[in-house]
Amino acid sequence: LLEQGALELNFIAQDSSRYGLDRKDGSTLAELLRRCDALPGDFWLRVLYTHPLYVNDELLDILAHGKHVVPYLDMPLQHISTPILKAMRRGMDSEQTRALMAKIHDQYPNLTVRSTFLVGFPGETAADFQELLDFTTSYGFDRLGVFAFSPEENTPAIAIREGLVPEEVAMARREELLLAQQAIAARKNAAMVGKKLRVLLEEPLDKRHWQARSAGDAPDVDQLITVKTPASRPRQQPCFADVVITEADTYDLAA
Predict the structure, then answer these.
(1) CA atoms 55, 59, 65, 66: torsion sign
(2) Which residue, of 6, 41, 197, 245, is most buried by count of CB atoms within 10 Å of its CB?
């Protein structure tokens, strides 16, 4: 892939952090990343869809300190209330989840942290949602997605008949959580103005402007950066570039 000119490789699975479990030879995602990180060239390696149960210090270290591995942790937590986490069969309670997030915040401050939450899961009370809202607001995730529960075929949740949350309530909770995150995102972006950043110029918008992403932005799900290039140095192909952030809005930047 690198020989074909790829500038970013994404490691994706339903639970990428369990890579190697079936191989019986000691393979782990962290080991795979270290091997790929040693390859020559100028490129990014990004991991998507990890599970908090299997995110350990070995993985966090390579994410935070790799040469090509971007300092980006995509780890859906789904909720923070112990009863809901138990109902979801997440394997961790609120205390364990909070402890993991506190460690990441304190020991790996350079990591861009993206998570997703699911509201309206059967049994979610107003108190459960308030706990999630308070946690999200206080932690200040860099990137956040929120979904409202809907039963999926061939999952245990489709058989649940008790404690169903009305769709309009679930959607209202989703909107409230996203509004809280909107304020966080706007504050974080405003703090970026004037800073230098390495970006991947992906697609020309016109003769002077390119659509770009930073190491903290995964394709298709995170924010974009519009980069104005010098008239004397028009870009012809996607490449990495060092830019200065000049403007910010809630979810996008200009440079």
Answers:
(1) negative
(2) 245
